[in-house]
């Protein structure tokens, strides 16, 4: 997967040096910084405390913590079994190996039941656990460090009042030298800026609230920014788009290829549930939208406000969106990709050409950002796996076509969709991409 | 289905040559001038449906070749009634089940038994057939005795052959010349003694299943008479919308299109092939403009809307007696949102208009009421219309089946001579079927110092639960015509069965009790009968509240119920369910809870009690049913496995209603229009185990089972949630976000 | 002309290649097993198997299936000679209205071909894409377990002989 991600990054615009060279450079830096800062690596343990009981927190504080935890997506990595929330165990595959979400229930032996607020705060701000060990930056403490004390306290109040679950999370499965935790001190020296988010100067409290939530809590750039060889976000390309679990995370800046420019309103709709112009979240973005659902609506609007502002006006060099991004060239597309057109008519059109009547479809596939993006991965994944809502909940249903359409047929279909609905250049290696993604282990 | 389908009506009317033919139905027909599905009973002293159709040969036909046909006016809806009536008839006729053919609801073949609904089929039809069969056996024995010159008492009958002691024998086929079975039933019959039963009480495999699992023709959807054409309708986008303009020219020019049918706001297209009909329907919809109708209630304010509408108040129960003095009083309100029937197969019908007569094959629940409605809509005489029941996808009440039959009839009239197959699209079924009404209840009760209920005050607010035909105005297509039929003013269904107030009167011993039915005539959404009607909500309310009362006095929920019940059969199902579930030593586990509930459906049908175990995911609020153990007393059990199948299904369907389901609206349109917007329970959420224990009562009347479990299941789930996490949810569906927030 | 292979028989059909398979099966080949439930790929009532994998025939154009082997419910047996899995559904009386059952059977058949000894969780996951409204879920599961047992039993008998 590391190879895959890396090779894919190579094809992305704005990525120049080969991944392995950057990795070597990165190692050098890490070694130097790690050596220089070795004395920094040692951190004291913080004394265990008796687990605080519910009465020691305000109910409002717990409720606030619940919303923050939800919009910080804690459960994505810390919950594997819905009946044992926050008990950890989720395998997070990184280019360096597999890390498992830890148990953050107040269990005293296997969770964080002995953590004081100070210990919890240090983990959030500095990525160091109660015993003084460095946490891997898969845990996004580079973002959480920016949270306010009050929000960290609310999160603490919430987590400490959950059911304690006894569950030992597996040790990280990482090869040398990544298994040496103290090296992370060097990483932190390079990439961690400890402390709350500096106040912005926009003078717009809604925008500032959105900035805080997006950066400190919901850590949007963790997926929507490219990462360097040491898997740190590249600050200079903040929001320039990235990859998450094999899905392309579109840019949230001016380089967005969205054919229909995003607005505060449409972003809010999308982040809240679904937008009639752009559609809804799929892949790893689905739990994000679900998580934001527990924030007050005004907070989600604030995030939308901030992201809309970072998107600004579309970049001048992006492929010109058609005046009407629907059916740009149906006749031409049909001619060029006759086979793809036939598949579209028989498999896709009954929902996607209903003019948006079928729930969770937009008036035209041409309105989806992913169809105009640089990588076909998301479209391929949706076609192969389909879209399925959480059990018992309202949400888009699309059948997967793995095993129905072969790689050639999916490639034909994608080539057709790209010509018919976008002005973007053809995706270069569709069949290979379909085969590569199709060969991955099925999820779930 | 009764016969293979052939292209012309004539074929249907011939080839059924038997000694005893349609005239036997004429007396019954003559007495229902209005053909309204509810004729006045000509023989109120007779059991079951014999009240309305007292002639034996309306039910049992014996042909000269000895073949035996049982005719029920009820319809197979997947509930297994065809098999159950066969068992009853075979038992009393002392025949091998394989020798008996069953004909179901058909306006020219069977008695008028109204709707197949309300868990009435066993009570009405199977009871009538049991008596008729026993009386036919007796009557034929008497004839044989005369023929053989001996006493009837010494004759034996087996497999349609009557034998004398000396070995002489005569077959039924030889005895049935003329109209010997055209006699009125007697009130009492000589049944096969319980210890001689061979068929009743056995789990005879369902007759319909082999065809269903192999792809043989099983449903109205599968009928393909020669010359059949396919039709689709274009429905208004919202309730009350009218067709303003239509440009049908392009669609009409399509070579595959036979005809575009328009009458007012009724719009349909007919094509030779089904896919062509569907694509033409889509094109036609794109060329139609509509004036949308009145606003729907705001989604978040459905209950406020309901509470603000005028009501007709009916006190359906009022009792006063001496009781202890109230020590404490509890009050609660419960509600249910609009819900759908949600058949998996959208409604379908086949219709043929030829020689001034109309034949419709439909899966609607009442062939006679449907005939009356279609005749009225088409301004034909009822005799010109024949309605034949053929199975469809399960309906669970009044779904769009009648509408589809009306669609097919209107279209067939426009293309006479060609059988028209009409099937609704998924969103048409979801958007236009009549919903189960939103309902609200309020209950207040007092307990004395000993923990006994001393007074009870209950009110249920509901729309009607019956907007079925026979009135043409109850057919959606008839409402859309240029000369529209207006829906009749809705009426409440009366006690003892009730509609919105079904099961509103507790079976418990309540010295002082008042039950008020607040009937709301105005319907914000189109509503009608959904399986169990108001019983689902009333039992949810009463049985939730019983737990709240028990908790208030620290009583065990099962003991508290038993303490307030006198009915021995009620006590027996409660004790059985509790014992089999291991209620008294149930294990406590974090986030798991146990719930119990009981009801006697309609207070005169089957008794059912169940215990459930749920598991709660606190951070998502998700409720999962893990296990259910139920005990049912449905009188004499004809087919135990059939009863189990019905009860299991009732529990799972009710779990889906209770945990997930609600119709959603925006200001002008219904927005729950498919399975993505109206999620239901899927396989992964199905419980691990369900056990059904049957308390067989040989000699007691048959009681239906199709609707016994819905209300108790809802209440048991709510009670189990309260037991698990201490949060009482009083609105259906039991919302996850509400539970999640309560558990934060 | 388009050649479809259904239940082992070849059919040369003059149909619009965009037509979803469902309508060709039902209307041109008079097969009842695949049923219209939603036309949106949401309910599974139309499930058939193509080269052993479950396919929703209501959203699959026939053009992509030319030359591939299609199996419908009818290919598994007849009322007179039902196949193993069909017999299992009869034995468990795993139907009420039965409208969803063909889709369940075909999807379960595809699962058992791929995995002759599936766990309960695996069966549930596989059948989660198919909706049942009557509440027959547990009987359907029991029938699939029974079919799996009987198929394995038959296979091990073959091994012995």
Quick overview:
Chain B is an alpha+beta fold. In chain B, helix 14 (535-552) packs parallel to helix 18 and helix 17 crosses helix 18. A 5-stranded mixed sheet of chain C has the order 2-1-5-3-4, with helices on one face.
Structure description:
- The complex is a heterotrimer of chains A (444), B (744) and C (161).
- Helices cover 43% and strands 3% of the residues of chain A.
- By secondary structure, chain A is mainly alpha-helical.
- Chain A folds into three domains: 2-9 and 17-191, no CATH class; 205-311, Orthogonal Bundle (Cytochrome Bc1 Complex, Chain D, domain 2); 330-438, Cytochrome c-like domain (Cytochrome Bc1 Complex, Chain D, domain 2), CATH 1.10.760.
- Chain A starts with a helix and ends in a 6-residue tail after the last helix.
- With 744 residues, chain B is of the alpha+beta class.
- Chain B is 28% helix and 21% strand.
- In chain B, α17 links the parallel β23 and β24 (689-694).
- In chain B, α10 (367-378) crosses α11 and α17 crosses α18 (710-725).
- The longest helix of chain B has 28 residues, at 121-148.
- Chain C is an alpha+beta fold.
- Chain C is built from five helices and five strands; from the N terminus they run ββαβββαααα.
- In chain C, β3 and β4 form a beta hairpin.
- The interface between A and B is medium-sized, with 26 and 30 residues.
**Uncertain runs of chain C:** none
Main sheet attributes: strand count, strand direction, barrel closure of chain C:
5 strands, mixed
CATH class of chain C: Alpha Beta
Q: Write the H/E string of chain C, N to C.
A: EEHEEEHHHH
| Structure class of chain C | alpha+beta
CATH topology label of chain C: Ubiquitin-like (UB roll)
Dominant shape of chain C: globular
| Average pLDDT level of chain B | 93
Largest sheet of chain B: 7 strands, mixed
Described by its quaternary structure, the protein is: heterotrimer
CATH architecture of the largest domain in chain B: 2-Layer Sandwich
Compute the separation of the termini of chain C in Å.
Answer: 46 Å
Q: How many structural units, i.e. domains of chain C?
A: 1
Distance between the termini of chain B: 55 Å
């Amino acid at each position: 997967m590391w190879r895959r991600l890396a090779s894919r990054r190579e094809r992305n615009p704005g990525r120049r040096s080969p991944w392995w060279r950057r990795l070597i450079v990165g190692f050098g830096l890490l070694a130097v910084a790690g050596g220089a800062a070795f004395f920094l690596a040692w951190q004291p343990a913080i004394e265990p405390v008796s687990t605080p009981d519910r009465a020691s927190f305000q109910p409002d504080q717990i409720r606030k913590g619940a919303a923050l935890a939800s919009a910080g997506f804690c459960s994505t990595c810390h919950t594997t079994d819905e009946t044992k929330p926050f008990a950890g165990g989720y395998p997070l595959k990184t280019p360096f190996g597999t890390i498992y979400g830890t148990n953050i229930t107040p269990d005293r032996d296997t969770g964080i039941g002995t953590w004081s607020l100070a210990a919890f705060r240090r983990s959030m701000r500095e990525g160091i656990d109660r015993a003084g060990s460095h946490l891997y930056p898969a845990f996004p403490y580079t973002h959480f460090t920016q949270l306010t004390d009050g929000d960290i306290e609310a999160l603490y109040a919430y987590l400490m009042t959950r059911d304690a679950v006894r569950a030992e999370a597996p040790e990280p499965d990482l090869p040398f030298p990544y298994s040496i935790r103290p090296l992370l001190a060097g990483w932190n020296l390079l990439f961690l800026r400890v402390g709350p988010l500096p106040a912005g100067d926009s003078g717009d409290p809604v925008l500032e609230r959105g900035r805080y939530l997006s950066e400190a809590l919901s850590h949007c750039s963790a997926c929507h920014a490219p990462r360097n060889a040491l898997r740190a976000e590249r600050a200079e390309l903040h929001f320039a788009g990235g990859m998450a679990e094999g899905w392309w995370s579109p840019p949230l800046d001016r380089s967005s290829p969205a054919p229909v420019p995003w607005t505060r309103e449409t972003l809010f709709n999308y982040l809240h549930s679904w937008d009639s112009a752009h559609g809804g979240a799929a892949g790893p973005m689905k739990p994000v939208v679900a998580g934001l659902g527990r924030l007050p609506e005004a907070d989600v609007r604030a995030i939308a406000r901030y992201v809309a502002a970072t998107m600004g006006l579309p970049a001048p060099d992006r492929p010109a969106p058609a005046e009407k991004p629907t059916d740009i060239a149906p006749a031409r597309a049909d001619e060029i990709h006759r086979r793809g057109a036939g598949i579209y008519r028989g498999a896709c059109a009954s929902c996607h050409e209903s003019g948006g009547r079928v729930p969770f479809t937009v008036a035209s596939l041409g309105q989806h950002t992913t169809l105009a993006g640089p990588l076909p991965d998301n479209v391929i994944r949706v076609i192969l796996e389909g879209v399925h809502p959480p059990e018992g909940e309202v949400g888009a249903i699309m059948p997967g076509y793995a095993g129905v359409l072969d790689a050639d047929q999916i490639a034909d279909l994608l080539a057709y969709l790209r010509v018919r609905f976008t002005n973007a250049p053809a995706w270069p290696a569709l069949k290979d991409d379909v085969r590569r993604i199709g060969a991955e282990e099925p999820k779930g | 289905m009764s016969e293979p389908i052939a292209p012309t009506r004539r074929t249907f009317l011939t080839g059924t040559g038997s000694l005893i033919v349609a005239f036997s139905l004429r007396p019954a027909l003559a007495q229902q001038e209005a053909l309204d599905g509810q004729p006045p009973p000509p023989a109120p002293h007779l059991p079951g449906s014999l009240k309305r159709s007292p002639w034996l040969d309306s039910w049992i036909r014996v042909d000269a070749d000895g073949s035996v046909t049982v005719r029920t006016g009820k319809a197979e809806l997947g509930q297994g009634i065809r098999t159950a009536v066969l068992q009853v008839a075979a038992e009393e006729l002392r025949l091998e089940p394989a020798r008996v053919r069953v004909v179901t609801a058909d306006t020219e073949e069977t008695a008028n038994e109204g709707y197949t609904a309300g868990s009435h089929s066993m009570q009405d039809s199977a009871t009538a057939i049991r008596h008729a069969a026993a009386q036919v056996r007796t009557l034929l024995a008497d004839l044989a005795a005369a023929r053989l010159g001996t006493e009837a008492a010494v004759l034996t009958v087996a497999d349609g052959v009557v034998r004398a002691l000396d070995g002489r024998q005569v077959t039924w086929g030889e005895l049935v010349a003329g109209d010997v079975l055209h006699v009125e039933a007697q009130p009492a019959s000589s049944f096969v003694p319980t210890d001689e039963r061979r068929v009743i009480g056995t789990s005879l495999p369902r007759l319909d299943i082999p065809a269903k699992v192999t792809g043989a023709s099983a449903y109205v959807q599968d009928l393909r008479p020669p010359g059949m054409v396919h039709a689709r309708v274009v429905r208004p986008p919202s309730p009350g919308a009218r067709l303003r303009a239509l440009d049908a020219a392009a669609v009409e020019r399509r070579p595959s299109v036979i005809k575009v049918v328009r009458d007012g706001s009724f719009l349909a297209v007919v094509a030779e092939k089904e896919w062509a009909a569907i694509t033409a329907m889509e094109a036609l919809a794109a060329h139609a403009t509509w004036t949308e109708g009145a606003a729907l209630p705001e989604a978040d304010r459905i209950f406020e809307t309901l509470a603000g509408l005028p009501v007709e108040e009916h006190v359906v129960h009022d009792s006063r007696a001496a009781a202890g003095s109230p020590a404490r009083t509890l009050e609660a309100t419960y509600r249910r949102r609009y819900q759908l029937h949600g058949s998996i197969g959208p409604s379908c019908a086949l219709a043929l208009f030829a020689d001034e007569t109309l034949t419709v094959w439909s899966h609607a629940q009442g062939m006679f009421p449907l005939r009356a409605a279609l005749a009225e809509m088409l301004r034909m005489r009822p005799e010109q219309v024949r309605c034949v029941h053929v199975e469809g996808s399960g309906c669970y009440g009044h779904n769009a089946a009648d509408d589809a039959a009306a669609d097919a009839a209107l279209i067939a009239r426009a293309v006479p001579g060609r059988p028209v197959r009409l099937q609704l699209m998924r969103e048409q079924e979801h958007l236009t079927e009549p919903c189960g009404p939103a309902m609200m209840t309020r209950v207040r009760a007092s307990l004395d110092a000993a923990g006994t209920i001393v007074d009870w005050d209950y009110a249920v607010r509901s729309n009607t639960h019956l907007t079925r035909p026979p009135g043409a105005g109850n057919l959606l297509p008839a409402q859309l015509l240029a000369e529209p039929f207006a829906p009749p003013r809705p009426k409440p269904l009366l006690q003892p069965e009730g509609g919105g107030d079904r099961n509103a009167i507790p079976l418990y011993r309540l010295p002082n009790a008042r039950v008020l039915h607040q009937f709301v005539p105005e319907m914000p959404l189109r509503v009608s009968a959904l399986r169990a009607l108001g019983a689902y909500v009333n039992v949810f309310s009463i049985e939730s509240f019983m737990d709240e009362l028990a908790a208030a006095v620290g009583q065990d929920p099962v003991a508290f119920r038993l303490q307030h019940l006198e009915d021995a059969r009620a006590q027996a199902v409660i004790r059985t369910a509790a014992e089999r579930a291991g209620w008294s030593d149930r294990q406590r586990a974090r986030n798991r809870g146990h719930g119990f509930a009981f009801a006697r459906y309609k207070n005169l049908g089957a008794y059912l009690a169940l215990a459930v175990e749920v598991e709660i995911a606190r951070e998502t609020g998700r409720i999962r049913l893990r296990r259910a153990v139920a005990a049912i007393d449905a009188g004499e059990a004809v087919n135990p496995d059939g009863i189990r199948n019905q009860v299991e299904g009732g529990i799972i369907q009710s779990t889906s209603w209770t945990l997930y389901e609600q119709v959603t609206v925006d200001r002008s349109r219904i927005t729950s229009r498919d399975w993505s917007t109206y999620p239901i329970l899927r396989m992964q959420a199905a419980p691990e185990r369900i056990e059904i224990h049957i308390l067989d009562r040989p000699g007691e009347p048959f009681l239906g089972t199709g609707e016994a479990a819905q209300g108790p299941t809802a209440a048991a789930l709510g009670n189990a949630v309260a037991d698990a996490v201490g949060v009482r949810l009083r609105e259906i569906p039991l919302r996850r976000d509400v539970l999640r927030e309560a558990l934060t | 002309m388009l050649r479809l292979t259904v239940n082992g028989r070849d059919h040369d059909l003059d149909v619009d290649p965009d037509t979803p398979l469902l309508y060709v099966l039902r209307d041109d080949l008079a097969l009842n097993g695949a049923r219209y439930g939603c036309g949106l790929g949401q309910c599974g009532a139309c499930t058939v198997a193509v080269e052993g994998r479950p396919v929703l025939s209501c959203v699959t154009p026939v053009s992509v299936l030319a030359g591939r082997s299609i199996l419908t419910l009818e290919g598994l047996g007849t009322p007179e000679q039902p196949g193993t899995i069909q017999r299992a559904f009869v034995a468990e009386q795993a139907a009420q209205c039965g409208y969803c059952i063909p889709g369940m059977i075909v999807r379960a058949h595809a699962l058992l071909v791929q995995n002759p000894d599936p766990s309960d969780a695996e069966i549930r996951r596989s059948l989660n894409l198919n909706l049942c409204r009557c509440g027959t879920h547990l009987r359907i599961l029991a029938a699939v377990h029974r079919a799996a047992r009987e198929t394995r039993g038959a296979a091990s008998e073959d091994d012995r002989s």
